[in-house]
Specification:
Helices cover 19% and strands 35% of the residues. The chain has 93 residues and is α+β, with helices and mostly antiparallel strands. It is globular. The chain starts with a strand and ends with a strand.
């Protein structure tokens, strides 16, 4: 359904940011893209703590998983839980 094309750690000043590029074989409805992003985030945070995760769907859009949905609000401490984290979806038509 999708292929993780690249995964980078963009760490800076004690902030662990993960950037994931996803290759989609074909255009999918936004709901399917949301489900893919949620699965990728769930799998990622099951193995490591992240301050933020960015998922790049190429020509279809991108998703940020960050405090309150805004990666500018991350702190330099790793989260104990992700209660205040939200998804921010930007999809191109």
């Amino acid at each position: 359904m999708y292929i993780i094309k690249a995964r980078e750690n963009l760490d800076s000043m004690n902030i662990h940011r993960v950037h994931i590029k996803v290759d989609m074989p074909e255009k999918m409805p936004h709901e399917k893209l949301k489900a893919v992003a949620q699965k990728i985030v769930k799998d990622t945070i099951a193995h490591e703590k992240c301050n933020t995760i960015a998922i790049d769907f190429g020509p279809y859009g991108y998703v940020d998983f960050a405090p309150y949905g805004n990666w500018l609000r991350i702190s330099n401490r790793l989260p104990n839980n992700y209660n205040n984290y939200r998804f921010k979806y930007i999809f191109f038509d």
